[in-house]
Amino acid sequence: MSHPSQSALDHGTSQHGDHDAGQSHHGSLRGYLTGFVLAAILTIIPFWLVMGHVIHGTQATVLIVLGLAAVQIVVHMIYFLHLDTRSESGWNMLAFIFTIVLVVIVLGASVWVMYNENANMMPMSPQYKHHKLGS
Fold this sequence. Notes:
Structural class: mainly alpha
Family: Belongs to the cytochrome c oxidase bacterial subunit 4 family.
Helix content: 55-70%
Transmembrane segments: 32-50, 62-81, 93-115
Largest sheet: none
Shape: flat
Distance between the termini: 86 Å
Protein name: Cytochrome bo(3) ubiquinol oxidase subunit 4
Region (Disordered): 1-23
Subcellular location: Cell membrane
């Protein structure tokens, strides 16, 4: 016969009836609606900024849209994927941070390579410049 506390631990609960940390919080209707409203707002604002030409500088617009995209990723993680530092002893968040680091490295290296290829390419020959200017 097993010890009562061992049986409770085998089923994901302790003697006090607490649930496992991974099972402690599920989405509620209020949480999903909050996430939906935030995601919709974080989609509408960049659309308005770009389509309305609200900010005249292209670089500033791009940076603002990228910032809002990053915020929207966090909203999706919290409200829809339920990732936080408490779930599964923090392993979900650690895996996400590792993924973000890899994505930043790959995207940053890709942009860097494309920029350097563009900057170091041979200049266009005069015959192609004429065609480009004429069209």
